UniProtKB/TrEMBL annotation:
One GO term (biological process): T cell mediated immunity
Protein known as: CD8A protein
UniProt KW keywords: Adaptive immunity, Cell membrane, Disulfide bond, Glycoprotein, Immunity, Immunoglobulin domain, Lipoprotein, Membrane, Palmitate, Signal, Transmembrane, Transmembrane helix
Keyword Lipoprotein among record annotations: yes
Parts of the chain that traverse the membrane: 146-169
Amino acid sequence: SKTTHPQVGQRLELECLTAKEDSGVFWIRKDKAGTLHFIVFISSLSRTTFEGNQKTSARFEARKDNQFYRLVVKSFKSEDEGNYFCLMNSNQVLYFSPGQPAFFPVITTAAPTTQAPTTQSSITEKNPCPETLDPETSKTNIFCDIFIWAPLTGACLLLLIALTVTIMLCQQTRRRRCRCKR
């Protein structure tokens, strides 16, 4: 998406398109310092849960229209600046949208010069919108694999122990039955 430069107090609407088999979308904001802030979860049934487990928010509106999940900043302020992401969980995989930057316009100032009056240089701020990684090309996170394989391995080990104990008990019971006096 293109960089958005809202004005102070302006209404800002962002949208996210998902696949058909979604279970809802989270909206988060990454501020200039790189801190992530949870804004809202919108379920596939259009139910919203804002920060603090609230159903409504004084600063934001959220809704679902078919496959589009929309986030509205009611009155844009400096604390709302940042990169906005929607993310969804599908089959135990998190999918992040590309960041949707929303920053006030960058103000350029003329630098003092001692050269001829016809030459001017300007100073611009560094782009506060870092590029996000494409989820298709990023490598699998080993940390996430541990959360899947460790419980699965533990459950298999527990089942193997239960099976071994059951077999041993059945053999003991069988021996007792066969001890018949004739």
